[in-house]
Amino acid sequence: MELRWETLEGWERAVRDRGTLVLEAGELSLVEVDDGQVVRVGEPPLTTWGGWRYGSRLPPPVAPRVGFLRRILGGLPPPPLEGYDPYGLSGPLGGVAGSQGPSHWLGSPFLDRAHPLTLVFASVPLVPSCPSCGVPMPLHPWDFHRLSFTDAAPDATAPNRTGEVELRAGLLATCGHCSTEVVVPVDQARPALRIGLSVLDSGPEARKVGEEAGAALDRVGGTRMLLNGLARVGAPLGDLGRVERVALGIALDARAEADALVAEWREAEEITAIMDSDLTDVAGFLAFRERVLGDA
Question: In terms of pTM, does the model score above 0.70?
Answer without folding.
Answer: no
